[in-house]
Automatic annotation (TrEMBL):
GO BP, one annotated term: D-xylose metabolic process
MF-aspect GO terms: kinase activity; phosphotransferase activity, alcohol group as acceptor
Protein family: Belongs to the FGGY kinase family.
UniProt entry tagged with the keyword Repressor: no
Listed PROSITE patterns: FGGY_KINASES_2
Pfam families, per the entry: FGGY_C (PF02782), FGGY_N (PF00370)
Keyword 4Fe-4S: no
Protein name, as recorded: Sugar kinase
Keywords: Carbohydrate metabolism, Kinase, Transferase, Xylose metabolism
Domain Carbohydrate kinase FGGY C-terminal: 244-429
InterPro entries named among the record's database cross-references: ATPase_NBD, Carb_kinase_FGGY, Carb_kinase_FGGY_CS, FGGY_C, FGGY_Carb_Kinase, FGGY_N
Source organism per UniProt: Streptomyces solincola
Domain of life where this protein originates: Bacteria
Length: 481
């Protein structure tokens, strides 16, 4: 029996799980906040040394005793710029930094538009992506930009540090697919896009295969390729072809496992790679739980649990009320300057429970339309994993199966990114020992979960979808064409 560890360096903390390499059973866990995050919880610039300090604290007390391999998951879209000697040029720019919005728009225009980008690298530049951050750096800090000789992401940098800063620097296809200069379709970098953004060429880390090891520490500890948090969580959840994940945050996203990369000329699909050799096309919405919170405030109810209870007093279709939840504009469909709309007001529908129901149906219908974008490109969805605190709300669990037209799975809360990193470590360890095939990760027990079927409510869900789509088409004709 082997022992492996997975560490997840998120935006504010490090979580470590130590697992049995054969079964995935969690043996020990560690946690530590990143230094300084209490004072600046939404910092857009970070000294990467904080990640190492947090890692050391989380692993204290002999947590890693007996561990043979480590996998690293980390926050995505961060930019760690290094000079020729491997020293930090400036603090790392992390994913929540939105200052590169103008830079992203410049890149889209400078490379021939959204379709050209989608065909080149499977995504259209967004402010969070490293390619946009490089353009921002070149425009606002040209002296620093001129010194950049190597570009890493957070998980790349952590792996490099754990290995003792070797000459070889690595990443994996999952993290690389979010940069804006690596194509999940071709499996290759586009150095010309780095030069377009930064103004000159920069070295990029070697992209490892899913079961490859990045190296071995001086103490003999194997370090697997690592990956981004999204890909690690998918691996930790045990997602397979036919599975989709709907993430319910302030904004929302729909992600599915697919056998090929999808180039989407509209730019609505971002074509990520996963951590197993498959692909994770993602469609994002600008609005999800923020629509619920706004409705709760409008109705004067205390929190989302009370809003959920109120919604369940209504019936499917909310007595004709339809809420288009485009409160912050919308990405899917591409309506960046629109606003939300409440439609179908009649005397009989003007009750708090109907508005509460319309908020849940509007949020889930919007995400179902995002899912339809994937289904329209041949992505099969047989079950939907719901993630986020709102997935626990009874109204979400009651409405989602019928609206999505699929079985809905609500996993029990767990450190899925860290578990995915540990599973990757077990895979690389097993391959190095000749026990496992590089073609398939170890078969760990799946996540504990509640399962909800559409059942008799399916027809009602289809009617809700039709009512929502008719309203959206009336107000925003051709939005999905």
């Amino acid at each position: 029996m082997g022992i492996v560890a997975g560490l997840d360096s998120s935006s504010g903390f490090t979580r470590i799980v130590v697992c049995d390499a054969d079964t995935g059973a969690v043996l020990r866990q560690g946690f530590a906040s990143h230094p300084g995050m209490d004072a600046a919880p939404k910092a857009t610039e970070v000294d990467p040394q904080a990640w190492l300090l947090s890692l050391g604290e989380a692993a204290s007390g002999g947590l890693l005793e007996g561990v043979q391999a480590i996998g690293v998951s980390a926050q995505q879209h961060g930019l760690v710029p290094l000079d020729r000697q491997g020293a930090l040029v400036r603090p790392a720019l992390v994913g929540n930094d939105k200052r590169a919005q103008v830079a992203a728009a410049d890149l889209v225009e400078g490379f021939g538009g959204r379709q050209a980008w989608a065909e080149a690298v499977g995504c259209v530049p967004q402010a969070a992506q490293p390619v946009a951050k490089l353009r921002w750096l070149a425009r606002t800090e040209p002296e620093a930009a001129a010194r950049v000789a190597m570009v890493l992401q957070p998980h790349d940098w952590l792996v490099w540090q754990l290995l003792g800063r070797p000459v070889r620097r690595t990443t994996d296809r999952g993290a690389a697919s979010g940069t804006g200069y690596w194509s999940a379709g071709s499996g290759a970098y586009r150095p010309d896009l780095v030069e377009l953004a930064l103004g000159h060429q920069a070295a990029l880390p070697e992209v490892l295969g899913p079961a490859e090891a990045a190296g071995t520490t001086p103490e003999g500890l194997l370090i697997s390729a690592g990956t981004g948090e999204t890909m690690a969580a998918a691996l930790g959840l045990g997602l397979e072809v036919g599975d989709a994940v709907v993430s319910l945050g302030a904004s929302g996203s729909v992600m599915a496992v697919h056998h090929e990369a999808l180039a989407d000329p509209s730019g609505m699909i971002t074509s990520f790679a996963d951590a197993t050799g498959m692909h994770l096309p993602v469609v994002s919405t600008s609005n999800a739980v923020r629509a619920l919170r706004g409705t709760a405030e409008m109705l004067g109810v205390e929190g989302l649990q009370e809003l959920s209870a109120l919604a369940l007093k209504s019936t499917p279709g909310a007595s004709g009320l339809v809420l288009l939840p485009y409160l912050e504009g919308e990405r899917t469909p591409h309506l960046p300057h629109t606003a939300g709309t409440l439609s179908g007001l009649r005397r009989e529908s003007m009750k708090p429970e109907h508005l509460a129901r319309a908020a849940f149906e509007g949020m889930l219908c919007s995400l179902a339309e995002a899912m339809d974008v994937l289904r329209g490109r041949g992505v099969r969805v047989r079950r939907v994993f719901l993630l986020g605190a709102a997935a626990e709300l009874p109204a979400v669990q009651a409405v989602a199966p019928a609206v999505f037209g699929a079985q809905v799975v609500v996993p029990q809360p767990a450190d899925y990114a860290a578990l995915g990193a540990a599973r990757q470590a077990a895979w690389a360890l097993g391959v190095s020992q000749g026990r496992l095939s590089p073609q398939a990760p170890p078969a760990w027990q799946g996540a504990s979960a509640q399962v909800f079927e559409a059942g008799e409510e399916l027809a009602g869900g289809q009617a809700v979808r039709q009512q929502y789509a008719a309203t959206r088409e009336q107000l925003h004709p051709g939005a999905f064409s």
